Structures are given as C-alpha cells and as structure tokens.
Amino acid sequence: MTEQKHHHDPLNVDEALSTSEAFLIKYKNVLLGAVAALVIVVCGYLGYKHFISEPKEAKASEALFRGEQYFGAESYELALNGDSLGYAGFLKIADEFSGTAAGNLANAYSGICYAQLGKYEDAVKYLDKFNGKDLLVAPAILGTIGNCYAQMGQLDKAAATLIKAANRANSLSLSPIYLIQAGQIFEKQGKNAEAVEAYKQVKNKYANSYQAMDIDKYIERASLK
Prior knowledge:
With 225 residues, this protein is mostly helical. Helices cover 73% and strands 0% of the residues. The chain has 12 helices and no strands. Helix 7 runs antiparallel to helix 8 (137-151) and helix 9 (155-169) runs antiparallel to helix 10 (175-189). InterPro entries: TPR-like_helical_dom_sf, TPR_rpt. The chain crosses the membrane at residues 30-48. Keywords: Membrane, Transmembrane, Transmembrane helix.
C-alpha cells in the first residue's frame, strides 16, 4: 500500500511546472508525507520485533508511540518537543535511546518534523543521523535531505543528493521523482547538459514509470537552452 502511494500521489506534472521552485513546492509535502508513512511502517515493525525481545527497545518503542500520534495529527511541535503529560518528544527520545532502532527512527521523525516546520537546517542535521540500508526508507530520507538543501538554496548539494537518492532507490516509484527534481535544479543553475542527462535516465532507465510519459518535454526544453 505504501508503494502504491508513492506511485500515484505525484502524477500531475503539467506545463505550469516550468521552474525548479514550482516543482519543489508542489512535491515537497508529498515527499515528506511519503517518507513519514514509510517511517511509520518500519517503526511499527521494529517496535513489535524489539518489544518482545529487548527491554531497552521496548521502552524506546513505547516512548515513540505518543509521538507517532502527534505526528499523524500533524502536531509537529508537540511530536518534536513533547507535551506536559509525560511524552518526552522525538528529540529527547533520539538522545536518550541513542544506539537503538527506535532511537534511530526518532532521528528520522525529528528531521521530518523540522522539515515540516520549515527548519531545514535542523532537519538535515537529524535526517543525517538516521542510519538505514533498506531500499525504501533510506533513499526516501536521502531524497528529503536533498529537498531540504533545495529549500535552503544549496542547489549543488540538493542536486547531488537527489541523484544519489534516485540511484539508491532504483525504483519506479521514487527514482523518477528525484531525477526530475535534480534536473529542474540543474536547469535553474544553467547546467542544461546535466539536466538532460537526469531526464534521460528517467526516459531510459525508468521508461515504465508514470513520469516517463511526460519526460520528453523536459528533455526538449533543457536541450534547447
């Protein structure tokens, strides 16, 4: 179900998306929301697994539960910093349970919360702390870091990180999105050859993706500049 969300949400690519700013604004919340959904799924699995096998993990997973509720309700400040009812907040959980799977996920949650609050530098700091090697969450986190760099105006880092995320994901659902974003950033920088190369990867490597249906217009636009 999560994979389907990635595949269907970001489909309406139209002529209005003629600049990297427009593209990033349109896709930012979709990507952050998708990452959040992936983290929740993985967190639920790890919480169950460790709840019955490791006491420290059990305590950490229990601490995350209230934060997940705030997170799902888009109460990012409360999710991040805690409440007056005993919930400590993702930041404290990440610190207190450093070295555990739940603590690792608290870093991801913290980074996403900061990104949703527009605090992109703090977002990158915590997303960078997340350690994951799977084929879904890890590249999605990396893609979110790329988007944060773009929001901060660090376009070289943004494009490089998005390309890396696309390569790591190597999937029809995520990779074309990141490649198109990177291409838009390259166009803004006047790096049109790099933009064409990113777009051609979508066309050639992910030809069966929905985004590939419209990719020729991006290739043509960048080629004519």
